[in-house]
């Protein structure tokens, strides 16, 4: 197995997203793709996520990665490497290798105040695969913005990833919780978080039409929490793999049943509430949400 050599922390941060890092990954991913060509040739589906940061896409990606035929990386930002000219093999291998690294780190994520939390599935297949069929990346916000900014990017993605089929998972969360988490985690103002959230909402409708309804699955974060087995089974059917009992049991057991209600940690000004409520009324995929709605109620109404 080829691995990407680890940069020192300071160098890695300085090089993140730069031409130097891109060139380095191009070389390593090309070598890795050659070494694992047989496994990558069997990939039937390439899956990316749509939506917003802090919407719950990381946990869904991690739970899917626990399936024996699926490898989903988190925050790879695959479309940036597509734009840089990476081949199908390099993109597939990039997600596969990063998913392995994240599994080795027990799928830990950085939380607020220096805390960490984990999406590790002890009895799952994170970091390894058997008869690999689905590969993808769960970065949603940048994927949405890149596809919206460049109308030709979707066609290039389809051409580059052939013969694999494209599938997109659109994760939706109560906008009050989503915006509040963006503010709290990113130390952002309401204007900044709301502006980005609204821009992504504007992009998702036309983008979903271009992709095609049969290739986009909408998943509510609250529905995952309320019934993880049903949600994961639906995702597996959508991606073309079987959701067997051992997988559903192992992955469902790791879903937190007490979701963070970040909206309660923010002091909402009347004008801020009005703007969020207007957004909810405008977009059908936000129907049923509100500041005072419990997540389960919103999930049921969707």
Task: Please describe the structure with a list of short key phrases separated by commas or semicolons.
two-stranded antiparallel ribbon, 11% strand, 15 helices, disordered C terminus, alpha/beta, 7 strands, five-stranded parallel β-sheet, single chain, 302 residues, disordered N terminus
What does this structure look like?
By secondary structure, the protein is of the alpha/beta class. It has 15 helices and 7 strands. It has helices at 9-15, 19-35, 37-41, 57-65, 78-83, 88-104, 141-149, 153-161, 175-186, 190-211, 221-226, 228-239, 245-252, 270-282, 295-301; strands at residues 45-50, 70-73, 108-110, 116-118, 134-137, 165-172, 216-220. α7 packs across α10 (190-211). The longest helix has 22 residues, at 190-211. The relative contact order is 0.15. The model is unreliable at 1-16 and 295-302 (pLDDT under 50).
